[in-house]
What does this fold into?
Amino acid sequence: MSAAVDDPAYRLHCHWMTQAIALAQQAGKAGDVPVGAVVVGPDGRAIAQAENRRERDCDPTAHAEILALRAAGRALNNWHLNQCTLYVTLEPCPMCAGALVLARLGLLVYGADDPKAGAVRTVINVPDSPSSNHRLSVIGGILEAACREQLRSWFLKQRHP
It folds into this structure.
């Protein structure tokens, strides 16, 4: 067994990412790109969760991260999420990365890199941009293979029903 698997923090990240993967599965079944997000609050409990709903809501901003941030702000009655962690199955896009910075999120944990629109590490880096007013801590690659495979198989089914 590797050291990472024995690390309690890694196991905790895997636990929450598993929850995000389950939400992503729901999104995919409903016809949306399978992305799920969970916000864990300062007390270590989930305070918000969401899945992509762009197709169902006819809303271009209904990404899992945006919906989860909105719900977390309502749950805490505060838009400052600096003591919260967001778990999401796919690296956030520019819109979502900007929202995470504006929310002053404490930690972002994501699964798979997004080679087309990743705005945290892969294509561009919104959190570390000189225009960002908050330095976002980021951990990428948690359950990466499972997150990537979920997206790959969903897109394959869309192209070859």
About this structure: The longest helix spans residues 8-29. Helices lie at 3-6, 8-29, 54-57, 64-76, 94-102, 144-159. The chain has a mean pLDDT of 95. The two ends are 39 Å apart (CA to CA).
